[in-house]
Amino acid sequence: MTSNQQTSAEQGIQSISRGIAINIGLAVVKGVGGIVGNSYALIADAVESTADIVTSLVAYWGLKVASRNPDERHPYGHGKAEPLTALFLSFCLTAAAVLIGYQSIENVIQPHENPKPFTLGILALVVVVKELLFRYQRRIGQAIGSTTVQADAVHQRSDAFTSIAAFIGISIAIIGGEGYESADDYAALFASAFIIYNAYAIFRPALAEIMDEAPPSTLADQVRDIALTVAGVTGIDKCLVRKMGSYYFVDLHVLVPAQLTVREGHTIAHEVKDAIRQRMPQVTDVLVHIEPH
């Protein structure tokens, strides 16, 4: 792993660590507020924040594993730990959504007292904090190309939206008064549906990475363009790119004049590899195959 990739891993781990600390505080505030304020929507929100803590710890572990250098048993590195972690996060989100939805339906069938007004202040604070955390983690995740960090960011925004749903439900219950108690529970039910949607948003790219789905064609185009700038390269036959965690591996077939010696072809292959890795730090290795043309 290069120094740039090591720095990226450290940034990802740091962003998730901060998310864990913030979620611990929010889970306590929402849990206590929901119990004292008689709001199941807020309690459900606390449950999701607790799930956030667990899944963020798993994401932290995934990044730590993915940042390890290649070894004898894992010659291509440990990058697959990232999408595996993201898949686990999506399953945890789905499980939390089902739990919240089930309890919400039970509460609709058996109405309870209206929630207390102060719970709205708690939710407003949560929404602001969660949105800021989402934007921070998304920026880091996109900058370092980490599936895990971006998945954790989506997790934070899903929590923000469940808090918004809870805010609306509690507001309706408080303003409507008697007969509107279930608005709080319908809000939690809506939140569970949104959580499932976000679980899919995490699941899809993680599965694509596990299956070695080709990244956006612009990446392969950039590799081709760089290779064609190397003296002696007359064309590109194949260019295959696959993602491993926050970095990429490239398999490249380049065309060179048929009259070149083996040594000359070997030199060109190294120049192509060096040029790509120098201009594309997210690429950790390039396997160049020389094709006589």
UniProtKB/TrEMBL annotation:
Biological source species: Fibrisoma limi BUZ 3
Q: Where are the transmembrane segments?
A: 20-40, 84-105, 117-134, 160-180, 186-203
Domain named Cation efflux protein cytoplasmic is located at: 215-293
Q: What keywords appear on the UniProt entry? A: Membrane, Transmembrane, Transmembrane helix, Transport
Q: Which Pfam families match?
A: Cation_efflux (PF01545), ZT_dimer (PF16916)
Q: What is this protein called?
A: Cation diffusion facilitator family transporter
Cross-referenced InterPro entries, in alphabetical order?
Cation_efflux, Cation_efflux_CTD, Cation_efflux_CTD_sf, Cation_efflux_TM, Cation_efflux_TMD_sf, CDF_Transporter
GO MF terms on file? monoatomic cation transmembrane transporter activity
Where is this protein chiefly located?
membrane
UniProt topology in membrane = Multi-pass membrane protein
Subcellular location(s): the record lists: Membrane
Q: Which residues does the UniProt record annotate as the domain Cation efflux protein transmembrane? A: 19-211
Protein origin, superkingdom: Bacteria
The family this protein is said to belong to? Belongs to the cation diffusion facilitator (CDF) transporter (TC 2.A.4) family.
Task: Check the record and name the Gene3D superfamilies matching this protein.
Answer: Cation efflux protein transmembrane domain (1.20.1510.10), Cation efflux protein, cytoplasmic domain (3.30.70.1350)
